[in-house]
Amino acid sequence: MTDESPFTDQELLAYLDESLSIELMSLVEEALRSTDSLRVRLAQLSRQRDQGAHSVGEIWRRNHLSCLSRSQLGGYLLETLPPDFLSYVEFHLNQTGCRYCAANLEDLKAGLSTASNEAERRRQKYFQSSAGYLSAKETDL
Hints:
Blueprint: H1 9-16, H2 22-34, H3 36-50, H4 56-62, H5 70-77, H6 83-95, H7 99-140
Helix pairs in contact: 5-7
């Protein structure tokens, strides 16, 4: 981090990968609009990375090594995770603000909602067809 910039090199590289929280992305974008030296620094970092200068942290972030699988996120939604792992999931989603996992979680929630709506629609359809069948039986008696 330089004296003139509140952002670390890792944060700027994460900005390039669009893996910062929305709030931090906005702060970096605002600073980039008004600070020539920050734009130059970001360009230098990008060139270094493109030339093969990779840190362990950057490899970790770019490959999403700390991110959760969809099955783990599904377990989180269904509340079937062990307490220790649940703590990690909540930390990862809420404290680090991982946009990648948040997007996967929202996708799973949408799928779960769609499946729930479909099950309700089928239940209603079966009920209506059974109700019609029972009404016809009652008139026959």
